[in-house]
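Page 47, continued from p. 46.
Same chain as before, 466 aa.
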Amino acid sequence: MVNGNNLDKRRKLPAVQTIWRSLPNSLPVAAFWISRAIDRVLNRMREQAKMGVEPPDLDKVCVEILEEAQREARSHLRPVLNATGVMIHTNLGRSPLPGEIMDAVKDVAMGYSTLEYDLERGQRGSRHDHVAHVLAQLVEAEAAMVVNNNAAAVLLALSALARQKEVIVSRGELVEIGGSFRIPEVMALSGACLREVGATNKTHARDYVSAITENTGLLLKVHQSNFRVIGFTTAVTTSELVEVGHRYGIPVMEDLGSGVINSLDIDHVSEPSVKEVIKAGVDLVTFSGDKLLGGPQAGIVAGKRDIIEQLKKYPLARAIRVDKMTLTALEQTIRWYLEDRASELPLWQMMNQTADQLSQRARLFVEALASRVPSSVVIDRQKDYSQIGGGSMPGTRIPTTVIRLIPSRTDEVRVLDESLRRGNPPVIARISHGAVIFDLRTIFPSQESLLLDTIVMALHQLEGRD
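Result:
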């Protein structure tokens, strides 16, 4: 119940018409956002008045409304500075794309294109054709196709090849990927029946053989790209599974996940390449476009021509197809590989930075930062490790040098981190042992001045709280 004093406080709030008349003639954002902000701010102040809070004067109300409107008017999907050192950061959009590739995307997006038109024949074409031939050439497969992500690629393959049939999978490969999506659940959605074989830590070729029946539709191998099982373990190799499949006339599929094109070994952790898996003889392999390939989000399917054609004709394929912008970005990414330009992709530029290069960048950054921040904040450098991320090659340790900011009070670490996330642009860092951590591996050199300015502003805001 509102008492008389609090009711009087609510009556002190300015009327909507008064607010509109008091705002600047030149508004910083569209009137739509101002109108929404007026409602939100006044409602908030009415609730505060009920609790006995004295309303601010008209000028302060207008300032708060303008700030609220500007926040609302910003795009919700915004660019950020990734200072975490996680290169394929799923929450931050995975692999970034270079400007040259985005120029090609812009050209296609801003006008009409040959998305489903064959210029030579002068009639309808297929959107699959734009990427299929260069993609198949890159991974040395008979054919290939693209859908909207790797989970969709797996779902399509299971639905088209093994609906109402059994799919044999090792228990040690029933993985859960990001967002709590699990292989058994994807399989159930596809209409296929899961047949688990082996044990969590050990599966043999004979386990697959003993599980094969007349209703077996597919032998599936799932690469453990986002975890490692070590110790007393045995796993069936791709070649061994292919031999079983060929012996019994059953197609073999491998969900590779990360999709590195050439063999990769970092810190004694190996990642099999798509080429190796194709060469081993699988009928089908699926992998992501925005992980170790370094391209846009996409699910890539490569393998035997007759099976790829079967997948293209399956009704689900239309529901999970990609648009012209994704196809353009992916085609350009693949062409960079074929033209020996993969090292120019942002992901590989980040991965190829040496520990010495990062140490030098960190030293210069600390020197520039130290001259502009309050003396109460400790700034130093420390040896650390970057991560590949995106569920790729877990356990890899890539040496780097990080920059640490240590506020004078421990309770200020979270406040500083929050201020950085509210910056323009927002900065996403790490918190560890009472410090805010920045890894320049995932900051492009062209972004360093922006990072510096945002950190300085956040630190001065922190100082202003005292």
